[in-house]
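Chapter summary example.
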Amino acid sequence: MEAREPLRGLREALRAVLARVREGEPGEGREPFELPRFWDALGQTFKVTSQEATKLSLAFSRPPLASAEECQKLSEDVQKAILAVATVYYWLPKGRGTTLRKMVRDATTEVVEGMIQLTETILSAPLESLSQDQLISTGGVWEACEQVSNLPRDNQAAVVSALTACLGVVKDALEEMEHALVEGQDPYGDIMEDEELGLRGNRDTYWSEADRKLLSSCMGLMKASKACLKKVLSVVKAYGKADSPEQIAQLDDLADIAYEISPSVDELALSMYPPVNQLAVRLHAAKLASVLKKVLEITKTSHVCPPSEEGWVQFLTGAVDHNMNKIKNFTQGQL
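The structure predicted for these 335 residues follows.
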């Protein structure tokens, strides 16, 4: 038996674990669930997995190489470590928050994928040589295993993390569009002239005055998106709790609807580039306005919004309506 043969079986076993982690459901109510115990156990399994990746990589990095028997033992140890990671992940019930669970699942998936990658790299590399790919793959497993220390510890922290990521994407989209809209700037200025297409004097690469008026209100809507995410993030940080099923579910609802903001902002931004189809812009603006109003509504009715915070919810609802009404007025003639 070729020394690396057991690694083929290991690869298939790891692929099966990966499929289960991606698609499987958690075990609910098997025993009283304790969050601190869960994090201790998960941290320990990630640490052991990192150590097993190092052992496996070293065994195939310099002569004398591992024998088939040693490789079999290494493969069994890796499989055991990965199964322990998956088992602990399954301890985390949905009731602790779907946002939290998704982040733990993603981290678990990354560890399993990293180990599959390392196994494949060793299988495809020439014997008695430590390839650059093997070094990178080993480092990839270490990195994935270290992620456990950065994971949010409860659903409130998970939702803060999710909202922060959404806000970052929206900020980038807004800055990009502000840059493109600088007075007199050609949004396609960074594209070289093409001999076949000729000079880019085509008006389809520029905004008309009517376009700019419409886009001004679209920018207002994009700015409202940024303001909305900033305010929601601040109240989730200040008032968000993950102590009861109701609080946890409300936080998940907020995260779920917030995830819709950045793609809606991106779609609107893309439709704003010339040649502008004003009806398409109106359609994307209406979709974004609808998402924002839903975010504000869910925020207002949740525990993160005490009466003292209701003022900005009303203000931003008004800002969304104001910009959307202007967009409707500008595009009325297109209907």
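To summarize the output: The radius of gyration is 26 Å.
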